[in-house]
Amino acid sequence: MRLPQETIRAKRDGLTLDAAEIGAFVTGLTQGTVGEGQAAAFAMAVFFRGLALPERVALTRAMAESGRVLTWALPGPVLDKHSTGGIGDTVSLVLAPMVAACGGYVPMISGRGLGHTGGTLDKLASIPGYDATPELDTFRDVVARVGCAIIGQTADLAPADRRLYAIRDVTGTVESLDLITASILSKKLAAGLDGLVMDVKQGSGAFMASLPEARALAESIVTVAEGAGLRTAALITDMDAPLASAAGNAVEVAYAIAYLKGLRREPRFHAVTLALASEMLVAGGLAQHAEGASERLEAVLASGRAAEIFAGMVAALGGPADLLDEPEKHLPAAPVRRPVHQAGTVAGIATRAIGLAVIGLGGGRTRPEDSIDPRVGFTDLAAPGSSGGLLGIVHAADEAAADRAEAALRSAYRMGEAPAERPAILGFGTAPRATVAKRPV
After folding, report:
1. CA distance 318 to 313
2. Share of the chain above pLDDT 70, in %
3. What is the set of domains in the chain, with CATH numbers?
4. Are 441 and 195 spatial neighbours (Cβ–Cβ below 8 Å)?
5. Sheet-wide strand order for 79-83
6. By the 8 A CB rule, do 103 and 133 touch?
7. Residue 252 burial (10 A CB sphere; 0-12, 13-18, 19+)
8. What digits encode the pLDDT tens for the residues 163-212?
């Protein structure tokens, strides 16, 4: 068996690693015998040299099996959705309770912010009292009783991925197709799912900037997942503009609450949410086709049942029982709120720059140990084609930070002629819709 440095050297030189070598390296990540420098070097070697399909499957399996793998005995299908990350991507917070309201069970294991993108775990951490890393027995109980639970990786679930994930965030290796695939699927395999729907983002705010890159990642995820025994479908969705008009942590939780309560349902965000949730219901046998699934989802939104489940999840995991009734009472608010105006029509958005601006405000990390200010971010972000004059509202800790964020926001927006409308759903990855719809659970 090679020493960690020899495994790194082999991959650096473009050699193919066997499953035993990969397993030994992952064991070292889990047990701490592989140092941070070695983990970073391995990630960089993979970034430049890539992994063959057997290597991807081996890395995914090894990370999934580095901790406990859950099994479920529930009266409905165990389903999940995962996004490759973007700006204003608040879908998980609303989709999980929507699917649960339709009879699915959603044990969603989420991550922290990665690179320029926001993390579902960081958003939930802005809710006072919310336990994002509960004991596994608590996690299982909440899923069974409420229908969904969104948590972060615990010490028991895919611990090797948790360590490598943090290192990728600060070493310029986030965009590696191989490491993205293994990271996502190791958590999902450990969660014991019956079916998974992937949201592969493409555009200026995504890790996959081009459509061919997004298709390659969708193919990688579906191929590796099904090779590991997990039924998976992938949708490719637009990230050339923030998905929601809010970007940050507490501000996105507030946005999700407004969506669930019917106070604000922006068309692009709603379309992506319905498409992903519909595919989950079809994959789980809870609807025969996407159109019927969409109708069921609209019904649980209109009835308030999805909102009730979200509230139940928050309360069951230690958050305030009245969060939906009085979000402003509980969610932290930034002391400085500054509207940013610009005359003209929005012709384009450098979406990644908005994510970096959130980090600059303190809403993300530049080092794994950095703390996050949950209050900061942007709201009311203008969409392409908008000519209302308001680019967005800065939420900052102080005036100096607001000055920097305002400058960054202005730089991110390009004014000119209104662009051609870009669809929210760009494709269905490698799995045709008819094939996905026929998959049993």
Report:
1. 9
2. 94
3. 4-50 (1.20.970.10), 79-326+424-437 (3.40.1030.10), 332-415 (3.90.1170.30)
4. yes
5. 79-83, 195-202, 232-238, 425-427
6. no
7. buried
8. 898 888 788 888 788 998 998 899 889 889 999 999 999 998 887 888 99
**CA-closest candidate to residue 151, choices 76, 96, 217:** 96
pLDDT tens per residue across span 34-84: 999 999 999 999 999 999 999 999 999 999 999 989 999 999 999 999 888
* Other beta carbons within 10 Å of 357: 27
Catalytic residues: 80-83, 120, 168, 183, 187-188
> Residues 114, 174: contact at Cβ < 8 Å?
yes
Is-contact 337 174, C-beta < 8 A? no
Task: Quote the tokens at residue 167.
Answer: 């290192």
pTM, to two decimals = 0.85
Residue 240: is its pLDDT beyond 60?
A: yes
What burial class does residue 185 get, using C-beta atoms within 10 Å of its C-beta: 0-12 exposed, 13-18 middle, 19+ buried?
buried
Closest by CA to 429, choosing from 274, 214, 227, is 214
How many whole angstroms separate alpha carbon 290 and alpha carbon 437? 8
